[in-house]
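Narrative progress, year one. The postdoctoral researcher (J.K.) led the effort to move from monomer predictions toward full complexes, under supervision of the PI. The following entry was the first complex the group processed end to end, covering 613 residues in total.
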Amino acid sequence: MSLEVDILRRLGDFTLEARFATDGRLTALFGRSGAGKTTLVNLIAGLLRPERGRIVVDGRVLVDTDRGIHVPKHRRRIGYVFQESRLFPHLTVRQNLLYGRWFTPAAARREELDRVVALLGIGPFLERGPALLSGGERQRVAIGRALLASPRLLLMDEPLASLDEARKSEILPYVERLRDELQVPIVYVSHSIPEVTRLATTMVLLSHGAVAAVGQVAEIMGRVDLFPLTGRYEAGAVLEMRVAAHDERYELTTLKASVGELRVPRIAAAIGAPLRVHIRARDVVLGIAPPEGLSALNVLAGRIAELGPLDGPIVDVRVALDGESLLARVTRLTIDRLALAPGRPVFAIIKSIALDRRSLGKIQPASEKIDVDEITL
Amino acid sequence: MELPPLLNFSPAELTAIRLSLKVALLAVATSLPLGVLVAVILARGRFWGRELLDVLVHLPLILPPVVTGYVLLLLFGRNGPLGRFLADSLGIVFAFRWTGAALASAVMGFPLMVRAIRLSVEAVDRRLEDAAGTLGASPAWVFLTVTLPLVLPGIIAGAILGFARSMGEFGATITFVSNIPGETQTLPTAIYVLTQVPGGDAAALRLTVVSVLLSTAALFASEFASRRVARRVVGL
């Protein structure tokens, strides 16, 4: 699958001028509110018309203003999961689910009701009206409804934004399942870094109506120059690791990668399961000698690769570790005291407790079908 | 068996009741589709002349009914431009027929009907229609499967209002199609005539009671129906 976007759209004072291409399984559109994320998905879905530009999904031209092409939204076969679910109130859950399927040509139908219902765990309330569902249940039904129309591309516009933390963690595993088990590529709008680092394969960074960067999540998150956009608080590196061992006595799990080992509070994942670990820069301490007499369990050795701008009290430091990188945030005073400069060997110290379930995301090749319940972080 | 005077309807009175119901039903049935169409156009349309259409629709509400009846007579009478055309081409005659009474009722009830439906159309969450579009429904299907079901409470309310208005229509009817027993003499005109003749009081009272009962029943039916539909429309 591929998605190519090159469009210009004005809305009052705001101008969205975006150009990018992606072939990721789950592409996150990330940016602050007002960056133009929703406008962009509305253009892809056909709810808005661009002033000029082109949108191509899988080689099929949906919009090309030069050639006067504008495929109407009902012929695009692009699924859309809205922020506020938008279930039809006059239909039952089952009727909602089957609505789009009914308009899908028989030859194009990929999804079956039973499979989607099982995937999303919505069997118990098929005959209910949407008003009686909780926010999380409504969003799952909305996802199922979009899937049953067998879309070529699934747009999800901050599907978790209206939910509380508990509901969010209820839905996230289902989104991971969509990404790993179904054929349909996903464009996922979010302004939450934990969601993006957990779910996305590719990331499009939007800022003030323009694309600031496109690339792999780990790469974008690791770029010191993009910190103002990715958000200083959540900024940090993304490492892909595997579960190496469980320590039953102390209830810890060891994660392993070429960069070294990390110990985190025990997680319920099989040995060998791949995980994505988001290590926030603010949780990393740097030392120039191997630490002794310190409570932190995780120490990784590396070299300083890059220092961020030295114009404030705080400096972001990128540490190279065997091909991967880690980010640390220290004071400028520390930089001078320890004489930190590119090339200098350092030890990065990470508190195990900082790696909570929000920092860990399941990744899994499409071929392996692991039941979601097996991995509860 | 001797019936109490209140239930002892004369054949002429029964005819008036039946005719009133027939006129009101025909008026509602024929004007409802047009009412929905005009309500949607007024609620959604953005075109030059929308205000003019709005005024035109509301005209029967503010004009004296006699004036409306007279305009209908001028337009749809035997020698009126529309009346002659319809009679010659389709064989439809309104003047001094019960169909004319239905036309007068429909015109008088139309503004009320359109207002009720229009409010309902304006209340529809258009984002639901967008959602239906992304699921593959063409605009016509979106209208039939999403908009129309959600507007249903308004349509029911509009139909009942139109029906009640028809049952009570007097001025335009008597001006347009006169007051012919068995053809155009509806409940209100029959009551009016009965109050003008000596000894007509008992019959006038009987028909008044019937009129009150029918209107009340219509109101209850509308309450019941819209509550049922409203439950469905909010997704319970």
